[in-house]
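Project standup — Tuesday

K.O.: blocked on the structure for the chain from last sprint. Re-posting the sequence here as requested.
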Amino acid sequence: MDDHSKRLAGRTVLVTGGAQGNGLGIALAMAREGAHLVLVDLSVERMERARGEIEALGNPCHLIEADVSDEVAVQNMIATAVEQSGGLDVLVNNAGVFPFKSAADFTLAEFEHVLAVNLVGPWLCAKYAFPELKKRGGGAIVNITSCSGHYGGASVGGSAYDASKGGLQQLTYSLASEFGPHNIRVNAIAPGVIVTEGTGGQQAFEQGNFDQEAAQTPLGRVGFPDDIGRVAVFLASEDSAFVNGTTVIVDGGAMAVW
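H.V.: unblocked you, prediction finished:
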């Protein structure tokens, strides 16, 4: 496949939380389709490793250290991404935190931090990305929500996380309505159980820690970051030109049998 036949050739994609897990899976999938990547994360070391993987595919990759819950940092992040790449076509709001514990044990500051990163952060990124996407004549925003908190899938100890992801799902619908007239599509992906560093990683998978979840899934397996990445490519590309304001559940069918 030459560069011109790739679905995201010549487009700049910014992925928050792009240094590992689903974020890196998304970035690699986008790179395979010809995208220029901008990774945003708090860990420069992890971003450097991720850049090596992306550049090995022959794609340019820029790195920005930023906290998505900080408004000034987000403004600077978008400005830097545009300066480095010449514009912005796709925003992927993936950065998130996921502490799980009882409501009694959460402090107000901890609860507010989860909302700040998981909900306020995507809103800030979308707010400041909007004028840049508009300059390009349109684009796409992909929010990474979760099956946890989606419909009946709330989790014990997930009061902050589930609330933030439920809010992000509703934010997706609102922004799709607001940005749609500018040819900017806003959609979400709700991952199920995915093997990432946050869930124990490859070692936990090899040790059978996901066997119970796999057995409860109609496809008989759990997911991997590339499963999320492939759907993100679809939502970022013209293949989904008439898809706006929806959430794609990527869980192997687990929610279908809950």
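K.O.: great, moving the ticket to review. The helical segments are 21-32, 44-55, 71-85, 108-135, 159-179, 201-206, 211-215, 225-236. The first helix runs from residue 21 to 32.
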